[in-house]
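Researcher: We're teaching a course module on how sequence relates to structure. For the next exercise, students receive a sequence and then see the predicted structure as tokens, so they can try to spot secondary structure elements on their own. Here is the exercise chain.
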Amino acid sequence: MSGFDARTVSIGPCTAPAGYPDLRAKAFCLSSRGDRVTGRLLLPPAGNSPFPLVLLAHGAGGAKDAPYMDATAGPWASRGLAVASIDFPLHGERSEAKLFQLLTAELAGPDPGRLAGDFVRQAISDLDHALRAVCDLDEIDADRVGYSGFSLGSILGAKFCSAEPRIRAAAFALGGAGLGGASLESDRDLANFAPRPVLLVNTNSDETIPRDAALAWFAAAREPKQQLWFDGTHTELPGRALKSMFQFLERHLTD
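Model: And here is the predicted structure for the students to work with:
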């Protein structure tokens, strides 16, 4: 594997998701607006590089290697997609419990304050720096890049992807409109992602994202767009949903 450029510091191999020991796992860190950003890259065990890349983002309270992230990234990488993930600010290796509590309180309120706004700006900067760094690797095809996220990772992703031309397709799970106040308002961003294809995945018993919010988000998107519904909750997304997301991204990144 070639080295990361001057924007990052390679810190060597890391542990691959359980059940996928043949994946090539790489831990990395980089600087974004003065913050240290921790990340993980999973490369397929075999095949011809450069590989298509998916930037996969966790939800609130999660991390780059949370169990549901491993359950997603492991199978996707084993089937030929490189998968990169970072810890968002105040998450994972960057966690700060008190600030995270303040952040969640702000995001849940009707008028999020300065911390929420700073969090969103930092997270989008982190995604930008991570994408640029990973795309510099010889193993990555920078012309075949997709994005996928869960919940907060989807809403932040809509904001990031709308202004990032390298993203060819996006699969957003468990997102919705009108959540988190002005800091996370993403309807216009989702619309601006067109004409690139977008898939929205939601569950019928989501206790966090109301059905009306999910439908409103889909209405805000422009063609080509698709929305799939599955039985499940906000924390229980069935394997069939993850498979549908993979098939969508694979179709648009490998044709």
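Model: If you want an answer key for the exercise: Helices lie at 67-78, 97-108, 114-135, 152-162, 181-184, 187-192, 211-220, 239-254. The domain at 8-254 is CATH 3.40.50.1820 (Rossmann fold).
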